[in-house]
Design a protein that fits this description.
Length: 509
């Protein structure tokens, strides 16, 4: 007996100590925004700042387009093609990033991509034709795949009750770069021009600023980041604490889970719409209301800057709804928020005055960005084993939505921009409907509760990703811990019912 007590206390003393309270997986159960505690909050700050820098680089060109198009003699079609190129590259990059996160961890995956794409941002300064401009925008857009590593990282560091908030704030503040660059680039351009550079030289030099910023964030991740609460992937696999998973099994589990495909479609018409608007909104206000470049940039910036509160709010609403109503609350909140975003997008294309357009655009931005946060309140629960693949599929869906939307509505002159915006709103409403089809047998869906024919538990759901041989080896233990920690997705009523059931059937000790 004494030896057991000594053994138990020794084990407890060997457990790592964390600044934040943690669950059985050592994921933080609290989210302290203004803390830099290692490893949880440090990972949060590194992830959003690096994603922010990639957003700044990817959308540094749109606020300067009126200058760039004169210098490179770009047509409306050239600009449309470049806009499509800027978001199409990340489609496959995001899917690949999800798999890379599963295999080598978010730290190495994100830092490597950032360092690979930073030189392309420098090369933007030597673009001399429509083709070279399209190519630099295409390859710079690959960096947006760091969104996937950001969401994977947060889902690895934060527990179910706060994962929606962590994902929402990290992605929202990262997406803030799309609005910030609308302010930053015109200011940097103006400063360089005022120092003495010509107009056509100043815009080229301005691209050195986002390139340097992007590189510095990659080095910060490598120096100060950590993949998991207990260490980096390489060390954990070497010690045997983390299973070396099979790539084919990871991919198979991800692509055969229909929930991931529906969330990819949903994300295509919230984040995909956000990317589209980042590409067109400055030029839209500049041309339609005959504004100055700086003024159009400020108005356009307000769309992206709404991310400072809207996407985090989406994540927090998702967690709050789950606390009361479980996963069904998350799904209902997502559907409602994104549908309202579509309605206000339709209205934005119909209003004709500058002041009304600004007000409607801001309301539209709040809902569409909030829906992004709500989407990634659901994603972490779709699969435990293939979290990276599901995150990559969903993130890639965002870019596919942006590509299709820009090709259909904003490439060339088939539709006016205001007509294209209205039709984009209709598309949002239609493509949000499949959320109704998402069903978790242990929690239910929008219109029905858990399966009544068979008692289906969280363990049943997450262990189904491991075959009997893998379970015999003990590969499934992390999924068991996650299943236990995800019981909160039953909601208040579900947890009360489970608690009373346990009390009634608990054996005497």
């Amino acid at each position: 007996m004494a030896s057991m007590e000594i053994s138990g206390s020794a084990t407890e003393s060997q457990e790592p100590k964390f600044s934040l309270p943690v669950d059985s997986e050592h994921k933080a159960t609290e989210f302290r925004l203004f803390s830099a505690a290692k490893p949880h909050m440090r990972a949060f700050h590194l992830s959003w700042i690096s994603f922010f820098s990639c957003f700044v680089s990817s959308f540094a060109a749109p606020p300067l387009l009126p200058i760039i198009r004169d210098n490179l003699n770009l047509t409306a079609t050239d600009i449309g093609n470049a806009g499509v190129a800027s978001v199409s590259g990340a489609v496959f990059a995001r899917i690949a990033m999800g798999t890379a996160c599963d295999l080598v961890g978010p730290r190495l995956a994100s830092a490597s991509l950032i360092l690979l794409t930073a030189p392309v941002v420098y090369f933007t300064s030597i673009a001399s034709s429509a083709t070279s401009f399209l190519l630099v925008r295409f390859f710079t857009g690959f960096s947006l795949a760091t969104f996937v590593s950001t969401q994977f990282w947060m889902s690895s560091m934060f527990s179910a009750p706060v994962v929606g908030q962590a994902n929402g704030v990290a992605a929202g503040w990262g997406n803030l770069g799309g609005g910030a660059t609308q302010l930053i680039m015109p200011l940097v351009f103006g400063l360089i021009r005022d120092i003495g550079a010509t107009t056509f030289t100043a815009w080229r030099i301005a691209f050195f600023v986002p390139a340097l910023f992007q590189m510095s964030t990659a080095f910060a991740i490598l120096l100060f980041g950590q993949d998991m609460p207990d260490g980096n992937f390489h060390g954990l696999k070497k010690s045997g604490e983390k299973v070396k998973d099979d790539f084919s099994r990871l991919l198979y589990n991800g692509v055969t889970n229909y929930r991931g495909w529906i969330l990819a479609l949903t994300y295509g018409y919230c984040f995909g719409v956000e990317l589209t608007v980042d590409n067109i909104i400055a030029e839209y206000f500049y041309d339609r209301f005959d504004l100055k470049l700086h003024t159009a940039g400020i108005i356009a910036a307000s769309f992206g800057l709404a991310n400072i509160v809207s996407r985090p709010a989406g994540g927090m609403i998702s967690d709050a709804m789950a606390k009361r109503f479980g996963m069904r609350g998350r799904l209902w909140a997502l559907w409602l928020c994104q549908t309202l975003g579509g309605v206000f997008c339709v209205i934005l294309g119909l209003v004709g005055s500058l002041s009304a357009s600004i007000v409607v655009m801001i309301i539209f931005s709040v809902f569409v960005q909030g829906a992004c946060g709500l989407t990634f309140g659901v994603v972490p629960f779709v699969s435990r084993r293939s979290l990276g693949v599901i995150s990559g599929m969903t993130g890639g869906g965002g870019n596919v939505g942006a590509v299709l939307t820009q090709l259909i509505f904003f490439k060339g002159s088939k539709y006016s921009k205001e007509r294209g915006i209205t039709l984009m709103g209709v598309m949002i409403i239609i493509c949000t409907l499949p959320i109704c089809l998402i069903y978790f047998p242990q929690w239910g869906g929008m219109f029905c509760g858990p399966s009544s024919k068979k008692i289906y538990t969280e363990e049943d759901y997450y262990l189904s990703e491991w075959n009997s041989k893998e379970q015999e080896k003990g590969s499934h233990h992390a999924s068991l811990k996650f299943a236990d920690n995800s019981r909160s997705e039953r909601g208040r009523r579900g947890n009360l019912a489970t608690g009373s059931s346990k009390e009634a059937t608990a054996p005497d000790v």
